[in-house]
Design brief:
The structure is a single chain. Strand 9 and strand 10 form a beta hairpin. By secondary structure, this protein is of the alpha/beta class. Helix content is 34%, strand content 23%. The strands form two sheets. A nine-stranded mixed sheet has the order 2-1-3-4-11-10-9-6-7, with helices on both faces. Strands 5-8 form a two-stranded antiparallel ribbon. It has one domain: Rossmann fold.
């Protein structure tokens, strides 16, 4: 069975490390991957799935947020990801957003962000770790709940922004103990999922690897459905 091609967006600066972890996780799940960065040509081969990865903060002007000093942003990456998301969302291509990527999906669908979670959730402990030290609770029966099959789950935390107003066609499906949004998913039938943590750094944990497996499976199913439709059209 052919491996579906999954595009992975990353930072231009140092993002190759993150890409390697995504590549490993997607390969283990039966997929192929291609790195996508701002300023480089887009892949010629059609993408069958998309990961909007973590890294740089998102420019606050995009969602009407407060501009903060001393944060790393990449306006060209912001533009690239929004340009990728518009047709991918319209076509129902399976999409997984990771940390920044989850936030970018929300913005693409008209949502907003908390620019600094610690100014809003002042009682939240300041946590920045690649280790699974944060507890998140998943909405029972959600797509995420069916994939992870752990509730509550322990995840890592490398963010200081989070979803505020939820975009159209999304719903919140996970929060941490402070009430900070930790995951959203699409309300429709297509695979659209955003998680605030970094599952690519936790792929030795089965629940986190299952996120990538679910994405690849969805990409394969969408490809199979498209090919079946083409065959029916040709036969007709």
């Amino acid at each position: 069975m052919s491996r579906p091609l999954i595009g992975v967006t990353t930072s231009r600066r140092g993002g190759w490390r993150s890409y390697l972890m995504h590549r490993l996780a997607l390969w283990r799940a039966g997929g192929r991957s291609v790195r996508i960065i701002a300023g480089a040509p887009l892949p010629e081969e059609p993408l069958e799935g998309l990961v909007i990865g973590g890294g740089d903060d998102i420019g606050a002007e995009i969602y009407g947020g407060q501009v903060l000093p001393d944060v790393r942003i990449d306006p060209e990456r912001d533009k690239l990801e929004l340009r990728l998301l518009e047709p991918a969302l319209a076509a129902g291509i399976p999409i997984l957003g990771i940390c920044r990527g989850s936030q970018m999906i929300n913005i693409a669908l008209g949502g907003t962000l908390h620019t600094d979670i610690y100014e809003v959730y002042m009682q939240a402990p300041k946590m920045r770790t690649i280790l699974p030290k944060k507890t998140v609770r998943i909405v029972a029966g959600s797509r995420l709940d069916r994939i992870l099959r752990c509730n509550p789950c322990r995840v890592n935390a490398l963010h200081h922004q989070s979803v505020d107003r939820v975009g159209t066609g999304l719903r919140v499906v996970a929060e941490d103990e402070a009430g900070i949004v930790q995951a959203t998913e699409g309300t429709g039938p297509n695979f659209l999922l955003g998680v605030q943590w970094h599952p690519e750094l936790l792929v030795l944990r089965s629940p986190q690897q299952r996120l990538f497996q679910a994405l690849v499976d969805a990409a394969r199913e969408a490809k199979g459905a498209a090919q079946q439709t083409e065959s029916l059209v040709a036969a007709g």
